[in-house]
């Protein structure tokens, strides 16, 4: 083992943030080698990263970890958008079965020292009974019954089980707030990119964001630090949904919640935004997380506040005020037309 430096395996490198993280950690002086794993090859330059085409749902991942002497695993392939995965069932499989296989492989790897998991504050859900700020030891007020939030909850459960069985491995779980930035494509990003933004009548959601730059920063920080545990990660401060919409200089239309759901399915069928029930709950109630542990225990300080993150995301977006009337009229037409009301479960 003479050579110095960590050998890091990163899952999910065919997606933009996974690829960018793998590239940046490969340039880290404390890292000797980076192996990027995904089902399909990444579409951009991965620099010094060795790409291994493997499906983490397949036990072959254990061979990769053993053969490459991996000591650090960064699991980034838990995905939030069914569209990119070929539907909700495939997404659930990739997220949950993929994580189970990866952890089974990690369990068999005697040389493994550190597991870093990118999780999400979605695990807390969003409801009218939520506390002002969730701390890491709180459970969601309403357990998620479907979608990405349920996947995240299951993934975290398996990770905690692994941490108990392999107490010799440092396990760092990062619950990231919604990641935004000029290059991010996600359900929340596509929502804010809509020319007219539907909001839920009578509610003003509290939002927190994490800049894409800070997500890469906190993952790098976690790989290089000896701290284990679960940490909320978000830019400082809170932005109300109404403030966010005003700052984008885009018109918004207030609708009863059930109608926003209808708009959601219209948008989804037009492939505009991925509007799930959990998304609707988030845009109704919002979510706040306490980041004291991130600063005091993990020792990480994001470069961007929530408001700065949102400003950087919004900067390249043109105001859409001029077309507002036309767009609103077409949204209203779609709403008044009886829809086939298909099931979007």
Can you walk through the features of this model?
- There is one protein chain.
- By secondary structure, the protein is α/β, with parallel strands linked by helices.
- The chain has a domain at 7-177 and 210-234: Rossmann fold (3-Layer(aba) Sandwich), CATH 3.40.50.720.
- 40% of the residues lie in helices and 17% in strands.
- It is built from 13 helices and 13 strands.
- Strands 3-2-1-4-5-6-11 form a 7-stranded parallel β-sheet, with helices on both faces. Strands 7-10 form a two-stranded parallel ribbon.
- Helix 1 links the parallel strand 1 and strand 2.
- Helix 1 (16-26) packs across helix 7.
- The radius of gyration is 20 Å and the shape is globular.
- The N and C termini lie far apart (50 Å).
- 42% of the residues are buried.
- Residues 339-345 have low confidence and may be disordered.
